[in-house]
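Workshop exercise sheet. Pairs work together: one partner reads the sequence aloud, the other fills in the structure field after running the prediction. Swap roles for the next sheet.
Pair: D.N. / O.F.
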Amino acid sequence: MSKILVTGGAGFIGSAVVRHIINHTSDSVVVVDKLTYAGNLDSLNDVSASKHYAFEQVDICDRASLDRVFAQHQPDLVMHLAAESHVDRSIDGPAAFIETNIVGTYSLLEAARHYWLSLSADAKQAFRFHHISTDEVYGDLHGTHDLFTETTPYAPSSPYSASKASSDHLVRAWQRTYGLPTIVTNCSNNYGPYHFPEKLIPLVILNALEGKPLPVYGNGAQVRDWLFVEDHARALYQVVTEGVIGETYNIGGHNERKNIDVVRTICQLLEELAPVKPAGLAKYEDLITFVTDRPGHDMRYAIDANKIERELGWKPLETFESGIRKTVAWYLANEVWWQRVQDGTYARERIGLES
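Structure field:
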């Protein structure tokens, strides 16, 4: 039994990791989350009553609070998911991405290093710092068959991906310079339950249900490799418990799709699962609206996930078809969750928690 400190544990991927650990292992979790707009404690309701769960509202840039959390909870493992992650937001306001993703990762590394140095020999040997990153650090692929591998050179395109690339470099430097036992993973686009509605898939689902336009950048030909978030959570737990110190593992879903095809698939599923449409709407696809492409938009991401399958035995359980059906069905069945996000109720409660 281990105690795992999960930063960003109230976010989309972080909450999936926390739910996986509580529901499928005997380990305990300490969630560290600042509760920015994307942090939602509703996503942890199913596990928050567990005796294996603890929560700390802490900003990873706050070194003194991090030192207290490490001293109080004595974690065996760290899974670092806290990050600003929305590309459009990074273009409009990059400062928050520099602060959280770079300065915050530095603060967490230093807090973890000083805690690690204080441990007994056995505890020090078992400790791991797992940094969760993105395939966007690699830039984009111009061919139709090329894949990102763990040795692909970094070529980030947006302030977001540049800040994540910086944090990756810091983690590897702390391992090489100080010996901190770190592991890095880079994942493809996640989707699934509890996804914040500003991202493509939940945005399309909820806009369609409300009869609003379904915005598609450019001509929608951008290609992404889609990874079901619960598959990703399984992979991350396997990496932090079985991965090799100093290694990088790419995690992908083996599901490349053009953005326009993702949107059309969602529309087709809604025709089946939510046939009663907003007044005056004949087909959900009629809502598709092509908008001006974002600056520097990468055209194709695709991950080679052979290493994690070969060395750790992980592979995704969901195809895109099965995962997207589960995702659409979840949003249809969990209106309370997403309405609390859309009307700001979850955020007002967060402000109350802060006071």
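Discussion prompt: The chain has 13 helices and twelve strands. What would you look at next?
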